[in-house]
Amino acid sequence: MFASGWKERKIERAFTREDKGIDMVSNDKKLIAVIGATGQQGGGVVRALQASGQFKVRALTRNPDKHRELAEEVVEADLDKQETLKAAFEGAHGVFLVTNFWEEGTNELKQATAAIGAAKDAGVKHFIWSTLPDVEAISGGSFQVPHFTGKAKIDQMIKEAGFAHTTFVIAPMYYQGLLGPLAPQKQADGSMGWALPLDPTVRVIHMGDINELGHIVAGAFAHPDEAGKGEYLPLVGDFMSFNEIVETLNRQGHNFSYKQVPKESFVGSFPGATEIAETFSYFQAHTYLGSDSSDRIALANKIAGRQPTNFSTWARLNVPAYERTKSK
């Protein structure tokens, strides 16, 4: 859609040099280094870059010997060991960076600072950072959601680093989370469902299939003039209330329930519950993205070259048939 004539020009150049045995199609590809290549976000980025056919991919991982088949190049890199980043970024045109707040011992600011510095030293031209909304700024300090705001605070560092191109992609609430951290649990009445500190009637949740974030990243690397000047590109497959989530699933043959519980009783009920409760309070007041992001969403979809999968379609293919345990 955006690469009109690209393949034809590449093929023409390849044929003109065929007699010299030079694979110009391969040699002309820009190298993209992907941090977190074994995770959900980074893995999706690797696959999307490979599928585009426009880039050579260097997958970065702490354990390259376990993941040799990930990409054309698989290189050791550890954000907590800055000495590994120099070789990891050497010769790279672009870098995709994601950090994991939830991994024990993670200091996202320290990790991002190391990656930004190493990328600058390596001459990287296009830096793409997976960020989240600045809850502190959006709410005027009313809500404290470190796993959002901590990433947002890194944005300015990247803007000031002086890369030729920068892009900020925003991951949504993962559909996959409904099969993991937010999977339905057996309730007191015997049903399977959710008991959360969130008004289920308010439409505040920007959601998406995290595997599709890679399409936006690949599109941004391919079209820096449209998406490499500090643009924010959110992945949003659907915008829903929790009632709509439950109703969608139940129309597909499930029998899930939902109960709103007081924030006070939810906080501290399990590790991470306090952060989740504060996050939902922020959602309820400001939505996931924090403001009207329709223009940013439209640009993200244009750059990706496709519409992201909506929740109903994803759920039909991915949500297993939980055993019905509701009491008779």
Question: Per DSSP, what share of the residues sits in E-state strands of 2 or more residues?
Answer: 15-25%
Could you tell me the CATH topology label.
Rossmann fold
Rg is: 21 Å
The low-pLDDT segments are 1-25, 324-328
What string gives the helices and strands in order?
Answer: HHEHEEHEHEHHEEEEEHHEEHEHHHH
Name given to the CATH architecture? 3-Layer(aba) Sandwich
Proportion in helices? 25-40%
Report the sheet with the most strands, covering strand number, pairing sense and barrel closure. Answer: 7 strands, parallel
Q: Can you list the strand order of the major beta sheet?
A: 3-2-1-4-5-6-11
| SS elements, strand count | 13
Q: Which CATH C-level class is it?
A: Alpha Beta
Helical run tally: 14
Secondary structure class reads alpha/beta
Q: What is the total domain count?
A: 1
Average pLDDT figure: 89
In CATH, the homologous superfamily goes by the name NAD(P)-binding Rossmann-like Domain
N- to C-terminal separation? 54 Å
